[in-house]
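Backbones bend. We report:
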Amino acid sequence: MTVTYTANVNTSKVISNFLKLLFRWRGSIYKLVWIDLFIFFSLYCLLAISYRMLMSAKAQEVFEGIVYYCNMHGNLLPLSFVLGFYVSIVMGRWWQQYTTIPWPDSIAILVSSSIQGFDDRARAMRRTILRYVCLCQVIVFTMISPNVKKRFPTYNQIIDSGLLLENEKAIIENMDIAFPHYPKHWMPIVWAASIVMRARKENKIRDDYAVKTIIDELNKFRGFCGFLLYYDWVSVPLVYTQVVTLATYTFFLFSVIGQQWTQVADAGGSPNRVEQWFPFLTILQFFFYMGWLKVAESLINPFGEDDDDFELNWMIDRNLTVSYLIVDEMHQEHPELVKDQYWDEVFPNELPYADDAKRTGPPEASTAKLDYRATNSEQRRFHMSRDSTATNRSGRDNFLNYMLDKHSSSASFAENYHPSRRSTWEDISRLTFTEPLDGPEEDRPRRRRPSRLDSASVDFDELIEQRHQERRDRMRQRFLNMRGTHIRTSPSGGYTVAVLRTASDEALGEEEDA
């Protein structure tokens, strides 16, 4: 199964958490590279000993020329580019194959909610549909995974596991004889779809939309199983794999010769820089490049037996257990329906935190602290900041302009307001409202709440706050009027059911007045 280390690197520290991972063996690069590294180092030592002890002067001169040639031209191979591009393709393919593996949970939930009834007939339908779904997956896994093939080499082992019956085995074998060249993983899905249609005819499924939804999920599951077979049939092009392999091994064939220590100076007149007694950098270069290639070899088929391959046997056990649990044990079962703890508060003001949890504030917009001033003097100057005073003042200005337009019949307003010039906050703050003008009632301007303007002057800050408070009270009262409860007795046991009802006429009238 894939080696996981997420718990060891959940939080970054001063000393890197990755250093602890270097001492692991299972799934490590040491386990993949050590044999190739041993062979490479043995060849290097053999050539070094032969050059220093076994070669004649003439042979040493020829060998030094070969070393010089390999050292000068060995880096012409674009190994980093070839390996990087190849490993990127393999890694993307590796994760795509994992996301293609289908899970039967959604089908189990649909079947449990759609096929009604607690009788043996309905229960058998639900369990059989999910058994066929899991059987389809097992047949596909036996065709792509050696581990699953070892567990289920024939249909007899699948029968022993309870996923297949004798009569179903006979049907599949007869189909294999009639059509021997095609996989039969889709047959259980066809059987499951037939059971869904039978359940609809027997009125176990109440509507056709549920039938269509279940059939669509079955087709989606079969499609994912087919994609797994496509990944098994169609590999990364062989020519690319050959190019990467030849480039890597050819590069190190040149390196095992070109990185040898010699007694002569190079073309520039400086002594040879290769270590005389141990090739440190050469060993590191081999370790990294060969490890890169081994990563691709390990991940190119994630259904094999490597340490980082997917554990399909565990998935088979899990899927069958969870499927039966959903469609049988948990069928139409749920906890008692009660009021939540925030029932009377409509919504929680703040959720609790544990002592060791870190309380964080809401995310901040990227322009929240941006100060911008327009350079055009003819335009109005805007100031963007987090100062709540400036924001509230802008809102008050808009509200006051609305109030002044609304109460334009007052005498003091006619005296102080001039449409030809722009009103400022100082001008508006000096305005007062007097008694309404005399005249017939139908000529007077209608006011919604005349009690607010009875005084000789109006405090606009207080008026704004009062309107905000009334709005909050009105919203809360509307929520309270919309809610109501009554007790209903269920055959499976009594519990309280919350029923939403429409708002009262009084609440609706108050909202229209506002």
Summary: The beta strands are 483-490, 493-500. The radius of gyration is 40 Å. The CA atoms of residues 130 and 323 lie 6 Å apart.
